[in-house]
Structures are given as structure tokens and as C-alpha cells.
Specification:
Blueprint lengths: L4 H4 L15 E7 L5 E7 L2 H12 L5 E6 L5 E7 L1
């Protein structure tokens, strides 16, 4: 399936970048087909970044982005 941003992107439409209050959200993005999803919400930034790094290890075209509860991007892992 080719990437079609208007059809594939769920961030801020199907789900929000901002984590619940006091949490940190990891959002996954398949850069081949454009799908995105919430990988999980974590109690600390370190836990969220660790998840993003471990989930993308040895993967291609997979990015994980970490957001705080205000929706600010605080980290990422993976390759485009």
C-alpha cells in the first residue's frame, strides 16, 4: 500500500500525541506505509525512550516518537 498521508496518519485524529497527565507516550510510525499507532504510555521519560529504542532495534523504516503529557516531542528512535 503506498503512503497516503490523508488516509494513513492517525496521530491527532484517531489518537493524541499527548500522554495522559504525568505520563509519556510512545507513538510508532511505519515509514513504509504511513501507519501510526500508540505503542504505550509510560511513567517516566526514560522508560518511554527505552521502549522506543528497543522496539526499533534492528528494524528498518520504523520510527518511534516520545511525547510528554503536553504533546511536546521529547525524543525518538529508529530509522526512516
Amino acid at each position: 500500500m503506498p503512503y497516503e498521508p490523508e488516509k494513513n496518519a492517525g496521530i491527532d485524529t484517531a489518537f493524541l500525541r499527548g500522554a495522559p497527565k504525568g505520563k509519556f507516550r510512545v507513538v510508532g510510525v511505519d515509514t513504509f506505509d504511513g501507519t501510526d499507532w500508540v505503542e504505550g504510555d509510560f511513567d517516566s521519560a526514560a522508560e518511554a525512550v527505552d521502549c522506543a529504542r528497543s522496539r526499533t532495534a534492528d528494524e528498518q523504516m520504523l520510527k518511534m516518537h516520545v511525547y510528554d503529557d503536553a504533546g511536546r516531542h521529547i525524543g525518538d528512535a529508529g530509522t526512516f
